[in-house]
Amino acid sequence: MEALVCKKLGDPTALKSSISEADNDSPIILSKTHPIPQLKSPTSVRVRVKATSLNYANYLQILGKYQEKPPLPFIPGSDYSGIVDAVGSGVSLLKVGDRVCSFAALGSFAEFIVADQAELFKVPDGCDLVAAGALPVAFGTSHVALVHRAQLTSGQVLLVLGAAGGVGLSAVQIGKVCGAVVIAVARGDEKVQFLKSLGVDHVVDSSKESVIASVKDFLKARKLKGVDVLYDPVGGKLTKESMKLLNWGAQILVIGFASGDVPVIPANIALVKNWTVHGLYWGSYKIHRPVVLEDSIRELLSWVAKGRITIHISHTYNLSEASLAFAAIKDRKAIGKVMITIDDERSVKSKL
């Protein structure tokens, strides 16, 4: 089968063209003869991957800067969707041909992946399969953060940093579903206009205007005291500025550090203001609170099927264009999700 293999740590965007097994400079290669994974247990299921999502964490992992560092070589990739290709003798929840989605620690950047039946979610009829492959990590992160941890309620003010990225855009939509007043921060006219089209209450273009001044003017016009929940996948200077907008008793959701700068949240101010700081590493829920994670994804899939949320995919590539896909994330060109789709015809012809 075809699989994207990380053979050494480095910048996967360096090549910025199609890749092959002959490439020596790129940390990632496209292997066309990688072994097809076999069923590991009676409850194992093999999925023919239709689409797999690129997340900033995948990029950091290949760079060697992510908190989890798998031994080399490895196949990157986390959330994916596809068609059940084979099932073990003990599988009772799924059958060959079922449409499913899931997430893994590694391995989705390939034509096939194996998972236990308990780890797979049926994709509802009203949900596009490629969209389902974009859902688990980004929307799952925001859903657990906002619904489970912050318990966001109607009328509260939600401030989303990096609002046009994968997790940011999902937070904006989930905030609207919860009935919050949503303020979004992004950079550039295209991203700002897209966020406005989603019905966001206020959008700040951080490349042109002061976040603090713009948000304060909006809050004053709406007779609101301040921000109740800060959703922060960016970090750095923007985090420090945003803390000036928080209400007494506000909640800070630490999602990530796309800016490359880990911010300092002053404990003395958190004490005086009675802030709650939530660190959220979504993947660890699979180990420590799997039921929360499973319930979250099922609810999100039902929301997609009902049209309550939409998954915007701005860039789609194939496996050989992975360097370009990672560049779209690194250069912050994406609005929403970047996906790798795997050609159905080629997958069907793969020798089993």
UniProtKB/TrEMBL annotation:
PROSITE patterns: QOR_ZETA_CRYSTAL. Residues 22-340 form the Enoyl reductase (ER) domain. InterPro entries: ADH-like_C (IPR013149), ADH-like_N (IPR013154), ER (IPR020843), GroES-like_sf (IPR011032), NAD(P)-bd_dom_sf (IPR036291), Quin_OxRdtase/zeta-crystal_CS (IPR002364), Zn-ADH-like_protein (IPR051397). Pfam families: ADH_N (PF08240), ADH_zinc_N (PF00107). GO terms for molecular function: oxidoreductase activity; zinc ion binding. Gene3D superfamilies: Medium-chain alcohol dehydrogenases, catalytic domain (3.90.180.10), NAD(P)-binding Rossmann-like Domain (3.40.50.720). This is Enoyl reductase (ER) domain-containing protein. It comes from Populus trichocarpa. The lineage of its organism: Eukaryota, Viridiplantae, Streptophyta, Embryophyta, Tracheophyta.
